[in-house]
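Summary for the funding panel

The consortium committed to producing paired sequence-structure records for every protein in the target list. Below we show the first two records in order, beginning with the earlier of the two.
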Amino acid sequence: MLFDEIFKHLKNDQQSIRMGFADKETEDFYHGLLKNSSEVHSQIMQTSSMALIEKAIYAYGKILKEYEKNQPLKLGMHYATNKLLIFAIIRNDDEKSEDALLLTEAKVNNMFKDFGIHVSTTILEEEDNYTIPEQYKIYIDNAEV
């Protein structure tokens, strides 16, 4: 229903412009839209990509929470246009937490594969003595590492 109304409105604007009845603001809007279509397209793609990344972050957190006994000590996330990067630090030899992180990655990748969103996880152990890079936002911080 909403789409039909929008389409009807666009058609009316088109006729008004073609016949010379449209006000200057309407004409300027459509001329600007056509002139800057690549910018508009880029903005739409960026906005939709960010919405998908937000959903992927939410899904990742929800799925990882299912493995409540196998959580990393620290977890950070960083995202770009179509990538969600995970950086996790786990206890030494904690294979169950490692499995939980990898299974979470696989599940989210499966959920968002048709949208071009990809999750990639880096897993380090405490003994590796690394910190989560600055550009990552910390989501879990359960220990001093």
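The next record, for a separate protein in the list, is shown here:
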Amino acid sequence: MDTIAQILSIVGCLNWGLVGIFQFDLVAWLFGGSDTLLARIIYTVIGLAGAWCISFLFRRDALVEGE
């Protein structure tokens, strides 16, 4: 689960980089526009993956303390 969340977060970061630099939304382009159901699902899954990655901050501290 952690690896999938990291991959999806990287995809989201790259997409936002493209939007910021080139004003090009790759997800919207691939899935027929940002308003399509499929694109919205992709955005939601990437957002959930990013939220999951927040837990990495707390787990890393717990691992250091447990050693």
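Regarding this second record: The chain has a mean pLDDT of 90. The chain has three helices and no strands.
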